[in-house]
From TrEMBL:
<dbReference type="GO" id="GO:0008526">
    <property type="term" value="F:phosphatidylinositol transfer activity"/>
</dbReference>
<dbReference type="InterPro" id="IPR001666">
    <property type="entry name" value="PI_transfer"/>
</dbReference>
<protein>
    <recommendedName>
        <fullName>Phosphatidylinositol transfer protein N-terminal domain-containing protein</fullName>
    </recommendedName>
</protein>
<feature type="domain" description="Phosphatidylinositol transfer protein N-terminal">
    <location>
        <begin position="1"/>
        <end position="250"/>
    </location>
</feature>
<dbReference type="GO" id="GO:0008525">
    <property type="term" value="F:phosphatidylcholine transporter activity"/>
</dbReference>
<dbReference type="GO" id="GO:0035091">
    <property type="term" value="F:phosphatidylinositol binding"/>
</dbReference>
<dbReference type="GO" id="GO:0031210">
    <property type="term" value="F:phosphatidylcholine binding"/>
</dbReference>
<dbReference type="InterPro" id="IPR023393">
    <property type="entry name" value="START-like_dom_sf"/>
</dbReference>
<dbReference type="Pfam" id="PF02121">
    <property type="entry name" value="IP_trans"/>
</dbReference>
<dbReference type="GO" id="GO:0005737">
    <property type="term" value="C:cytoplasm"/>
</dbReference>
<dbReference type="InterPro" id="IPR055261">
    <property type="entry name" value="PI_transfer_N"/>
</dbReference>
Length: 267
């Protein structure tokens, strides 16, 4: 898809995925969804990637209620407050920064930062996030191919969300066959920089590794959905998206009160 198409595709899919992850007292609560600029909802650090500074966009603040979505060994050790995760995001598309914290329990001892720059092309940029030489030495690069089913957990696989099988009726895009990244047009890449800090003696390395692996799992499943939902979001405008987000907030508030736990559960 084109970079400008992905903005709508992502926001539509976030709304739909949020509903799929919410129920039974758990899931996503939207506190804020409003514009930001250099005076309102300002991020702590400037938004900067690929040689450019970003100063305006949409700010969201969400709470994730996650007790049954974390590994059992953490569930048994930690109190209720540990499972209320706050997400603050500054979407200055094509750049976005997301900060995930646990202020009620971990405080400053935990922070997960996800920075994304969305660019045309096949993922060939070596330093899309303008990292320093020292940061580049620490960075591990992971290529996520959404059409490679070997990257998908068996418990996550859905035939309806398999890009190898999906063909869009509205755009005639797909199915994605082997080597698709070098042959399809249009094509774009989401360059994601994931930084995690979890300060807990004896558990730090284990939990940081677990979080990185879980983020890879989430990115893989989410972007398979984004592509396989093409006919649902294609043709929508940003006004349509804002209306959908308002409706989704109300639906999430109701969904958390009923039913059973839904969506991605830690293995």
């Amino acid at each position: 898809m084109k970079v400008e198409e992905y903005q709508v595709a992502q926001l539509y899919s976030v709304a739909e995925a949020s509903k799929n992850e919410t129920g039974g007292g758990e899931g996503i609560e939207v506190l804020k969804n409003e514009p930001f600029d250099e005076h309102i909802n300002v991020p702590k650090e400037p938004l900067y990637a690929n040689g450019k500074k970003y100063t305006t966009g949409q700010f969201t603040h969400k709470i994730y209620h996650l007790k049954n979505k974390v590994p059992k060994f953490i569930r048994y050790m930690a109190p209720k407050e540990a499972f209320e995760i706050h997400e603050e995001a500054w979407n200055a598309y094509p750049y976005c920064r997301t900060i995930i914290t646990n202020p009620g329990y971990m405080g400053k001892a935990f922070e997960l930062k996800i920075e994304t720059i969305h660019l045309e092309g096949q993922g060939n940029l070596e330093n899309a996030h303008s990292l320093s030489p020292e940061q580049l030495q620490e960075r591990n690069v992971c290529l996520i191919d959404i059409a490679n089913n070997s990257h998908v957990n068996s418990s996550d696989y859905k035939e309806s969300e398999d890009p190898v099988l999906y063909k869009s009726e509205k755009t005639n895009r797909g199915p994605l066959k082997e080597g698709w990244m070098s042959t399809v047009d249009p094509v774009m890449t989401c360059y994601k920089l994931v930084s995690v800090n979890f300060v807990w003696f004896g558990l730090q390395k284990r939990v940081e590794t677990l979080i990185q692996n879980q983020e890879k799992r989430i990115f893989t499943n989410f972007h398979r959905q984004v592509f396989c939902w093409t006919d649902k979001w294609y043709g929508m405008t940003m006004d349509d998206i804002r209306r959908l987000e308002d409706e989704t907030k109300q639906e999430l508030d109701e969904q958390r009160k009923v039913g059973c736990v839904r969506g991605t559960v830690a293995e």
